Predict the structure.
Amino acid sequence: MGIFDRVVKAGRPAAGVAGEEPLSPTGPSAGQLLEQGMALEEQGQLEEALRCYDRAVSLEPELARAHFNRGTILLDRGDAQQALEAFMKAVRYKPDSAGAHFNLGATHARLDQHEAAASSYREALALKPDFAEAELALGAALEELGQDEAAAESYRHALELQPSYADADDKLVNLLRRLERFEELADTYRRMLETNPHNADWLNNLGAVQRKLGRFKDSAASFRRAVAADPDDALAHNNLGATLRTLGQLTEAVDCYRQALKIRPNFIEAHHNLGNLLAELGQADSAVASYREALEINPDFAESLTAMGAVLQTRGQFDEAVECHRRALAIKPDYAQAHSNLGNALQDLGQLESSLKSTRRALELQPDFTEAHNSLLFVHNYLADQPVVNLLIEARRFGDVLARRARPALAWANTPDPHRRLRVGLVSGDFCIHPVGYFLDAVMAALASSATSLELFGYPTRSCDDELSQRLKACCRAWHSLVGLSDEHAAELIREDGIDILIDLSGHTAFNRLPVFAWKPAPVQLSWLGYFATTGVPAMDYLLADPWTLTASEEASFTEKIWRLPETRLCFTPPSADIGVSPPPALSNGYVTFGCFNNLTKMNDAVVKLWAQILNTVPASRLFLKARQLQQASAQREVMARFAAHGIEPGRLILEDYVPRENYLAAYQRVDIALDPFPYPGGTTTVEALWMGVPVLTLAGERFLSRQGVGLMMNAGLPEWVASDPRDYLSRAVAHAGDLQKLATLRAGLRSQALASPIFDAPRFAGHFETALRGMWQAWCAENTAPAATQAGSRQ
């Protein structure tokens, strides 16, 4: 109220100046008491001033100025009800006083009587149309009444009357932010900056709004201006880092976070953001160090706790990861990200029901949480007897979430020529030393050969730079990282590259960018290789299968059209390691060693029960398990307990952690027969076992996922190693273990047999693959016989 009171009181004569009313011989008059009160008020003696005004109105009840001054003192000291009575009298006796109506409105507002306040402000404005303070106050009252449009109009009118009115600017931007009217908010900040272009706070706020609008380049420019205006503004450096990360400028983003922390070492959000970025860059140890810095500042910072847990999980520290997530949830029970992360960690520990519970809780809290939905869909792969219809419903729900967020393209600049050279984009987080990378290596080299009519474009979704990623990159005409890019910007980049066919290599696995596919940046899109079920994404046109892995009856379980390659959907690159195939170890050990080097999560209770039956039936046999979970003593104890429940002593189990690849492959020399888990069989482990001369016993399921082993064994020429049901699986395991001579003969020639098969013949596979892509392209061309009229230019 103070600033408005001063406006109204301005120009009052002080006590004792020329022109004041002379004292009456019988005592001071009402006018003299008014002047004395005003003088005392100027001197800060408010109680004495109030007594003068009280005496003045007792002598002259119609003295409006005394009522007015009396009301201001009462209001300032918090006596709003008496102030209201005083201002009502001031208005009654001086109805043409804009100031009196204004202060009456302020008093109504203090009493939460916002309708009455608005009415009084309107009266003030009717008397004094250029009364900017009244317009501002009217806007505030209207906002309290929920009349947001009218409030915004009042704030704007106040700014027309007084263009540099900071209070009105603040009110307007706060209202627009609350209403999420970001376009108008950005315009408002730009107008404000015209008068003060170096205001770092406004530049920071403008950058934040532009980021909200997805205008990341503009946002980065605003944050750069903020940093230039105030180089010591840690928040601006942090915000610039976040935006540069979104634009994929990761090295500069790291520098921004570090600069923010140099200015403000205890900036917890900057420590956390730096940790997230370092994790994204694959620098796990440095990421954990950043999270620990944040937690030193605030041990209860749930965001850093669960983020650190996620990184610890990638390092195989599953128990520590679970502890981090549980601590985060103890602090913040409704934190969806922590529930999702906990579900992921529990999944790796094989605690699938608990994993599902945590993941579903994340989705209850945040129904459009795509990361959690990915996890929910993926964990179903490990569970036996899941109704296919339920999985399809879940996948469609995921696809619907993506579709609501995206604005898919309806036309493309790509020339619908069925015979021209095609631009093929591959999107993956696994262009590196990874199972997917091993399958891609020789295939991409064959596709990139001079004889092919394809041009390959790589779109990695995580930062990785190793010898394999370098080989894959060399096969591509262009290599554009999607790390940090928003889905919209990633789709924009792919469209600018003129991609004809875009291939998802991840499905619902880690680092997927399925949301980018929802934008439909390429006319033809398909999913292949890294996942074994439907994506559920409506914009995904095809899924690549083969005659063995996907039965005709299963096609209804996919939202994509099924396109089959003639032999195999998988083609593996032979390892470069110089490791020979040894004779079966049973010949020297005197007992058969069964083995499985798959992710331990695939070893569900049905698998443990069947494998224990095999061990109980084959005398003195051993089971050799190698998995990254087994670096944890708790995981080893749990495995031993699970087998002990079926009568298997710990001494018959060989439990080892994962080791570097060459040592890992050499470990197959200690295995006679590999056992495939179910319903999630091996892929990479299966072909590596075959290359090492170790046959793999697989169980034929009904679903696409559960038939991957069937496809590999049939293409490798090993139909006798495919079991039709658990009883057949047991019978075949016992029979194969009982004929060591036959096993030795098979082992001696298995590497050559496998290398000559379709699952290792990259040129042969590449030919089938290219034919499939050409067929998909021709189908699209048939539906699009001319370039879209709305698109400029074409891709040749």
Summary: The radius of gyration is 37 Å. Confidence is low (pLDDT under 50) at residues 1-25, 788-796. The CA atoms of residues 268 and 294 lie 5 Å apart.
